[in-house]
UniProtKB/TrEMBL annotation:
May form homooligomers. Interacts with CREBBP/CBP, EED/WAIT1, EP300/P300, NCOA6/PRIP, PPARBP/PBP and SMN. Pfam families: Methyltransf_15. The keyword Secreted does not apply. It catalyses: a 5'-end (N(7)-methyl 5'-triphosphoguanosine)-ribonucleoside in snRNA + S-adenosyl-L-methionine = a 5'-end (N(2),N(7)-dimethyl 5'-triphosphoguanosine)-ribonucleoside in snRNA + S-adenosyl-L-homocysteine + H(+); a 5'-end (N(7)-methyl 5'-triphosphoguanosine)-ribonucleoside in snoRNA + S-adenosyl-L-methionine = a 5'-end (N(2),N(7)-dimethyl 5'-triphosphoguanosine)-ribonucleoside in snoRNA + S-adenosyl-L-homocysteine + H(+); a 5'-end (N(2),N(7)-dimethyl 5'-triphosphoguanosine)-ribonucleoside in snRNA + S-adenosyl-L-methionine = a 5'-end (N(2),N(2),N(7)-trimethyl 5'-triphosphoguanosine)-ribonucleoside in snRNA + S-adenosyl-L-homocysteine + H(+); a 5'-end (N(2),N(7)-dimethyl 5'-triphosphoguanosine)-ribonucleoside in snoRNA + S-adenosyl-L-methionine = a 5'-end (N(2),N(2),N(7)-trimethyl 5'-triphosphoguanosine)-ribonucleoside in snoRNA + S-adenosyl-L-homocysteine + H(+). Belongs to the methyltransferase superfamily. Trimethylguanosine synthase family. It is found in: Cytoplasm; Nucleus, Cajal body; Nucleus, Nucleolus. It comes from Carya illinoinensis. This is Trimethylguanosine synthase.
Amino acid sequence: MEKKMMISESPRTSRRIKKRKLANVCVKTYKKRKSREERVSPLIEKYWFQRYHLFSRYDEGIKMDEEGWYSVTPEEIAIRHAQRSGNGIVIDCFAGVGGNAIQFARMCYSVVAIDIDPQKIEFAINNAKIYGVEDYIDFIVGDFFQLAPSLKGDMVFLAPPWGGPSYKSIEKFTLDSLEPRDGFTIFQVAQAITPNIIMFLPRNVDLQQVEELSWLSSPPLEVEIEENYVQRNVKGVTAYFSGAVCGQLGWS
Ligand code: MGP
Ligand code: SAH
């Protein structure tokens, strides 16, 4: 008898539970409607729900295109990258809509932000203005590989395209799947600028290959690899490479 009383609900409690469930459905429907109002495609919807993790100041007018949405480095991870970058000139070779470049600039580094897509640079400038750091970034529309021989900097940041959200379908992501050139080529071009390189890679990347990048230099570069999380979900892997001067940059 007593047991029955404990598990049965009074009509009032059951009404309250029904109301709460209905409220949850309404919130979900409202959120879906809101994402549609902002005209995000079904591909992007999942990233839209994470928007404040991408840019905490999203509501102040952040702009992104489709590739920008699924490629931007979440703010928390971009801050981590910036904290580990020393205090010289940072070259963000694949800058996208500015997720990383903004955080580098917030740490008072001088930043060169390159992207081949003029629309990305337009959005990156807009987004940098929201964070008040546009004056600390030189924005360049161009092909990193063409510009590389004329670039000078203390640290190079590489977050190239991974081939879109389908990168996850590959069991082990090898460096030749990076775009627009394979990871070894991208790394070698960067290395001609400085041995201090940070590379943001897919979470399923072949870690053995990442370590092999350091052997492209003689003596081999030091490398440290970390997994990056947002709310306990792993989002990517960062490799920090450094040469003999790394001590001066506050690495290792
Ligand atoms: P994801 O794996 O597509 O999303 O991207 P999520 O939410 O982890 O998906 P889930 O369904 O597995 O939970 C995770 C993060 O990787 C993104 O927020 C970007 O920072 C980064 N990222 C994803 N892509 C496809 C790219 C890319 O092509 N280039 C770069 N530089 N970063 C990317
Ligand atoms: N870290 C960035 C996202 C980078 S996504 C952020 O947080 O916003 C990768 C970017 O590389 C894309 O915007 C793409 O336009 C750019 N890209 C592709 N090929 C390039 C090239 N050859 N030179 C410079 N940028 C290139």
